[in-house]
Please model this.
Amino acid sequence: MEYAFHTVDVFTSAPFNGAQITVFPEADGLTTQQMQIIAREINHPETVFILPGKSTVSAELKVFSPQCERAVGSHSVVAAARALVHSKALVIREDNATIQFSQDSKIFNVTLSQVEGRLLTQLSMSVNAQIDRYVPDSNELQAALGLGPNDIETLKAKSLFVSCDSSYLIVPLRSLDAVYRARFNLEAWSRSSAGSAPVNEVLVYCRETESLQTDFHLRILGAHIAQDESPPVGAAIPAFVASLCETRGLADGTHALWLERGHKAERQSVLKVEFVKKATAAMVVRVGGDAVLVASGTMRAPEHE
Model:
């Protein structure tokens, strides 16, 4: 049996930019094993498989990298919405519409807006972050990230372990150059105090950006990420926002940020992030952006191994 797919460039208004995500809008019938084989064959940072939703949920999402199944992130949701609207499996009859996606038992609230012929998608999340300030010391971090003594920010921000749906070590750096010189060293990581932590990825960031529009530049590193890659950061945004609230003493209220990932000369993503911080309630984080459909085709379902 053949399954239709669409390739979507996420968090960009121009094709061949942003994060490449492949979406199978009608994946019902594929097993988890087959989905993993397809994701490995396509070899994009993530492949999204859409299954029929239950009750009021428009669709169930399953997300795979070439190595493993992953949590749904804002980039997954934006790609799924764009593919569903293109395939007419999802019809938006108003300028603004709210739908729900799910992954297992977790529900995602999604707002779709038609703006000058473009589809803007925004994912809203309620975040209860678990934060641990006990992190590897500067020498251990430098070794694990292949950086020098002046690359890691220690005065204006602090490194933190932050867990929302996924866990990350969040490390502030002092320059964009340091962000792109960083190289994940698995041996040094395993020897450090982080070696026993349930964290597989590191989010490094800095205040220096390529665009005047953006406030921070982000990059994810990890044992299963190629040294020259800059994979999508959408799933890490709740943890990143929680780290900012913890280390920068942000006041209660609504805050807005623009974030960038990747070089302009290659494939850069720009994400709009809004969050509502309240001392007495869970933080609400909204991540949104544009997406462009760049390719469509079909793929034969792989044989069961």
